[in-house]
Amino acid sequence: MNATFEVIQWFTDFGDQAIVLPTSVFVLLFLLLSRCWKTALAWAISMGGVLALMLLLKLGIGACGPALGAGALDSPSGHTASATMLYGGIAAILFPRLGSRVRFMLAISVALLFGASRVILHDHSVIEVVIGGLVGLGGLAIFMRLRGPGPSRLPRVWIMLVLAGITLLEHGHRMTIEHRIHSFATLRLRALICPSQPHIGL
Q1: Start and end of every Phosphatidic acid phosphatase type 2/haloperoxidase domain (predicted)?
Q2: Range of 8's domain?
């Protein structure tokens, strides 16, 4: 069982912000250097929107969660949301000829796999990963809607080498951003915007 959990943890680490953030920046820089202005703007709006919305949801639900009357809803899954957007978007950029149905199925698969890993590891409840998955899929849908044509000659090998390098350097380094957001929401923000809710220490 421990070995199974280690494999699942290894997988879910691909959705950690330690990988998501530098990879997202690299994708944006690549698009800008390739002069794909419309696609770069779409990426910035979509990925930035996913991260910003998850931040707001984590702050709001963390601060006023008890008022919602849902004990299983405490902190929506940022791993599920950002990984769905990141890997779904990269697939769309690297393989633009994929049909819309194939892209949709791939994105759903990513959301399900990362969501399941978070639930199995007891990091999130089912409703929390569902929210994260929906946010990620929504961001990806916006990206697909707004993006323009990709580079005419896509250096897939070099892009994949850079992505692999980021993964090798950062995989396993778990950032504490989500924990800090939740701590701030429950320990500080709750008293400001939901003073009637009970104080919960971590």
Answers
A1: 75-146
A2: 2-193
